[in-house]
Amino acid sequence: WLYLREEKERRRLARRQEELRALALGQGDFQLLDHTGRSRRKSDFLGSWVLLYFGFTHCPDVCPEELDKLGRVLQLLEGDGDARRAAPYTVQPLFITVDPERDTVEALARYLRDFHPRLLGLTGSAEAVRAAGRAYRVYAQAGPPDESGEYLVDHSIVLYLLGPDGLLLDYYGRSKSEEQIARSVRRHMDTYRPLPL
Fold first, then answer.
1. Where on this chain does Cu cation bind (predicted)?
2. How many domains does the chain contain in total?
């Protein structure tokens, strides 16, 4: 019975891995600048768990709410060490702008001061940012400017979970609570097996 249960779980994981490969989300690399001016590639985060959010610093409400929620998820995970684990979970949070024209390195550095201290902001040329967004099928469209030249950017509101191999493992919409996200991330960490290349 145990063998059959293990075999069933192995098949389920293999099917899930094939589904993720078929989605082709998040594959490839990107090269952007972090909010300290350092060049970063997606491959820099291999070996780490990553929670990735696309947004912009001029967002009046949704992005700050989602980044606050991301910070609370990290707090839940960081406080989750127990007797089964040598250390609490650690996850690298990433924020990639969808508005590189206004979200410079300096603007990101100022903006991110209000959020989790490990949150890393990424920006770059318009093309590099678009390429990173396309890899995750992120929708982003700048609206018309108002009289003062300010504009909003309509964009996807999704938090992506990347495993240590850099591949997408899950995603979370706005309706998911921090507790639900933290529970899902823990489950992925507990059952993680790298995809065979």
1. 59, 63, 155
2. 1
